[in-house]
Amino acid sequence: xxxxxxxxxxxxxxxxxxxxxxxxxxxxxxxxxxxxxxxxxxxxxxxxxxxxxxxxxxxxxxxxxxxxxxxxxxxxxxxxxxxxxxxxxxxxxxxxxxxxxxxxx
Length: 105
Hints:
The protein is mainly alpha-helical. It folds into two domains: 1-62, no CATH class; 65-105. The chain has helices at residues 2-6, 17-37, 43-59, 64-98, 100-104. Helix 2 (17-37) runs antiparallel to helix 3 (43-59). The longest helix has 35 residues, at 64-98. The N and C termini lie far apart (74 Å).
């Protein structure tokens, strides 16, 4: 019985409209400030927004394990495309280093 009490099932709810608006506002504000005012690349601002969105999802009843599973599932569905893009980038880099691209340009 104690194990069941410890493994209390969380109720996952849909986000309210104001929560969606807050997440989008934070996304726009962080990216705009970082890209326009600070003039930095978008990697760190995206990580900040992902952390904020994850905290909001936990607030809505999701578990961290569930979020990890969803992130890995999404990443695994696009992994082949990512590998292809990396390989194309490596080939273009080799062409630039070897002088093929500069010769044509």
